[in-house]
Amino acid sequence: MIKNSESKYTNFIADRSKYPKMENGKAVIDLESHKYTKLWQGPQHPGVTGNMAVEITVNGDEIIKAKTHVGYLHRGFEKLLERRTYIQGFTIVNRICVPEPDTNEYCYSTAVEDLAGIEIPEKAKWLRTLNLEMSRIASFLMWIGGQAGSLGMGTISQWTVGMRDFWLDLFEEMAGGRIYHMYMIPGGVRKNLPAGFTEKAKDLVIKTRNLLYDVERTFFNNAIIKSRLKGLGIITPEMVDEYGIVGPNARASGKPYDVRMNNPYAKYDELDIKMLTSTVGDAYARAELRYKEMHQSLDLISQILDRIPKTGEIHAKLPNVLHWKIPAGQTYVKAESTRGEHGFFVVSDGSKFPRRVYNRGASYTHAISVLEKLAENISISDLAGLMVSLHTCPPEIER
Fold first, then answer.
1. What's the pTM value of the predicted model, to 2 decimals?
2. Among 151, 252, 258, 387, which is disulfide-ready with 286 (CB 3.0 to 4.6 Å)?
3. Region of residue 176 (phi > 0: left; psi between -120 and 50: alpha; otherwise: beta)
């Protein structure tokens, strides 16, 4: 109980001379002559799947300036790969994005195969395609739970992360690992599908689709969610090429580019797949587009399960991989991750170690340049929702 009736705030008078000037409804900021509050969001925050912080300069609850800070991981994947043999490298690449490791496995393995002149068996191509689409579903289920959680709707997170666990069960049956699968290796894949896998996968496709209908009714048709996401973080068509925006972030702004269709790989050219786009470009449009792509991935998984050959080799014959010297050369291999174009540039000097490995992850530009731009003039309360709507994976930045 306060004994002194006079609070220290009783005689507080706001110094309006410190308030920023306004032009066209926006603050004209002079960071040198005014003192604004600086806050940190992160580095541990449900807004992104990983350790990344945003330093924000605020005027009241409005963000005036945002600056992304990384360096909380320091993985250095590229240099680690250059100091290991080619076969040792495939156990490292999947750490570059934990929620979706398989795109990294595919790109790295295909790059090695391209340099070595290896053609993988037909069945292995189908199994790789299945693995990649399962990975998209698992990644999107984590993302949509994060998008709902960033706006205070924890129920959706519990639903989708719980459903994701069933997909991890399938990965465990397929590859032996739930998180890091290490399934796609140079030359093909490591294992055949176990007995009963196809039936379990088809049943899970139905269960996941039914859950997504519940998510649509609960999340996308919610008036509060619409009011929070519509108009937030608009990416204009002009920004797409200027900032190098890819994936659903670009397609939600009208850019019809998906590596699976524009530059088909694995078995995507034999599947019934259509380009999904929007023209609105805000956080709600990005969420809606990813939701549709989840249904699309479920369709693709069903197609693939029906077309995987019953017999056939799953791995090409290789030399002794412990002393495998790859012919000198260079190559770039790309694929479509849930975040957009993902690629590996690999250079060989003819030894058993890569001369140079470079990973291109979509998160680098989305989590730095784009986020810092879109965060200006929004409320602090909207920052987490904006961050998730860009769907970034910080280890891709600290590769």
1. 0.88
2. 252
3. left
